[in-house]
Amino acid sequence: MAYVDAVVQGILLGGLYALFATGLSLIFGVMRLVNIAHGDFIVLGAYLALVVVQATGLHPFASLILVVPLMAGIGYAIQRGLLNRTLGPNLLPPILVTFGLAVVIQNGLLTLFSTDTRRLAAGPIETASLSLGPISVGWLPLATFAVAVVLILGLELLFYRTAMGRAFRATTDDAEMARAMGVNTRHVHALAMALSFAVIAIAGVFLAARSNFDPFSGPARLIFGFGGLGSLWGTLAGGVVLGVAQALGAQISPQFQILAGHLVFFLILAVRPRGLFPRME
Amino acid sequence: MSKSVIRVSLLLAVVTLILALAPLWAGRSDLRLIGEIMAYLALAVLWNLLAGYAGLMSVGQQAFVGLGGYMLMISTVMLGLPPLAALPLAFVLAGLVAAGFARLLFRLEGAYFAIGTWVAAESVALVFAGIPALGGGAGMSLPTDAVRSIAASREMREFVIYWLMLGLGIGTLVGAWTLIRSKPGLALMALRDNPVAAVSVGVNIQRIRFWTYVLVAAITGVIGAIIFLQKLRVSPQAAFSLQDWTVAVIFIVVIGGIGRIEGAIVGTAVYFLLREILGDYGVTYLIVLGVVAILVVSFSSGGIWGLIERRFGWSLMPTARRMTDR
């Protein structure tokens, strides 16, 4: 029974990991950009929510009304002002620039907020749980999983049913041709990043409500999100596989939890070197 | 040998001699600083070979620094060997682990490779944190009698470690320069400039990448062993620090000039200058370093040395080949 329980909790944990990874997957899909600072932006979103909650007294989830547009604005500005000029056939420049951003964010947050660990109090939902026979499932993990699924569904609809999605896909397939057809690809790239940052904001608030965080919590979130890079549903699958692996690893020994996740990461990449659901080239 | 090579070699010899005599003219803390500069120079030269020439964007070099540090503990505490015996052992261990990693990591492309090296390093750190005989998560210190066996007096020990670091820094620099000027170096430069064209003229990319990765890892292991010989204490957090052994090194190379031998020298100088000037303001130097790196990548992909090269046509350590008249 303990293993069934671990698998269920692992699947739900996967929802959180999918939430962490969706923004990363989105921009990788649209412009082949790997945002090394992705995890640090999630932590930045968590701190932004912390500031908003402290200033306004809003519930953490209600603070998203402010945090999502703020983060989206930051994302748009970073892409337009900085990252657009590094895009090209060479993968190295965007990796290096986002690497620089990661260190700037980590140490900037450290200067502003010290190394104290923080947490956002989400109220009774934190401990409330639902009994399913012998297994009890927390409402917060359940809600996280549901949000991840709804978000991915929404993004899929946006990509395949809207004019904006068409511009995204056109830019992905052939940026030059899209430009020739009158698409402003710089603007489209920046919009994709804004969308990614909106998801990052949501991920940040869930991170803050579910666990302690400090300025250096970011890099681990990046790693947790990498298994299914390339497609949105692959991101969810990757998150779930990783969550289950960690939960089962923790059953063997608490020390083995993270390592089990890393080993599965390699297992996935050994079998599928380009992620669980690679895009067609 | 061309004139400029002889001139640079002479200059290097003079600088090395002056630095080797540093125990005569420098104080304790200066000696430590120069030693540290040498360690970073070596790490930067090596990462530059990886990312700048072989196109292997590794963010997991801390794995090999840490392996070197732990090899020092394993060989002195568990095997009862003298500390200096750890250096060749670290070379072998790091090289073997790298060869193992390569089998898996070399299947990955671009960004996946970068993240893969990182996860690999994290995994190695977790494994060492889980070995109780090596102090687990808390780490362990080098036993005092092992420390004494390096040299009798503390002063002499510091000199020995300093000379080791100096030898490694200069040795790695000269070694990399010689390599780049050799036949495999020509293949490395072809790989840097255009991988597709390199393949088409018969460069075996996979083989040259594999050996670059393994050799760089092995030497990085030796650097790790010496670094922790100086620190006398090793813990998973310090030994496998992403920040100290990879992030700082990447910044050094990027700012100095990636894919250029001189880049590592210039970058190391800028890094330590910033750190010493801004050191009193906590982590500010890291923020400044990050901003400088971002600006450099955005506006001059060749780094500071790339700018100098373009502007003045200088070449401190020439690697270009010219057609002779004959």
Task: Describe the overall structure.
- The complex is a heterodimer of chains A (281) and B (326).
- Chain A has eleven helices and two strands.
- By secondary structure, chain A is mainly α.
- A two-stranded antiparallel sheet of chain A has the order 1-2.
- Chain A starts with a helix and ends in a 10-residue tail after the last helix.
- Chain B has 16 helices and two strands.
- Helix content of chain B is 75%, strand content 1%.
- The relative contact order of chain B is 0.16.
- Chain B has helices at 3-20, 22-25, 28-53, 62-78, 86-105, 110-129, 144-148, 154-181, 183-193, 195-200, 205-231, 236-239, 242-256, 261-278, 284-299, 303-312, and strands at 140-141, 233-234.
- The radius of gyration of chain B is 20 Å and the shape is globular.
- The mean pLDDT of chain B is 89.
- Chain B has a two-stranded antiparallel sheet with strand order 1-2.
- The chains are: A mainly alpha (281), B mainly alpha (326).
- The interface between A and B is large, with 40 and 42 residues.
Largest interface, counted with CB-CB under 8 A?
A-B, 40 and 42 residues
Number of domains of chain A: 1
String of helices and strands of chain A: HHHHEEHHHHHHH
Low-confidence stretches of chain A: none
SSE order of chain B, one letter for each helix or strand: HHHHHHEHHHHHEHHHHH
Widest β-sheet, arrangement of strands of chain A: 1-2
- Side by side, the strands of the main sheet of chain B go 1-2
The count of helical stretches of chain A stands at 11
Annotation, overall tally of beta strands of chain B: 2
* The first-level CATH class name of chain A: Mainly Alpha
The residue-averaged pLDDT of chain B reads: 89
Kindly estimate the percentage of residues of chain A that lie in beta strands according to DSSP: under 5%
Question: Mind telling me which CATH architecture of chain A this is?
Answer: Orthogonal Bundle
Compute the separation of the termini of chain A in Å: 44 Å
Class by SSE composition of chain A = mainly alpha
Computed Rg of chain B: 20 Å
- Write down the overall mean pLDDT of chain A: 88
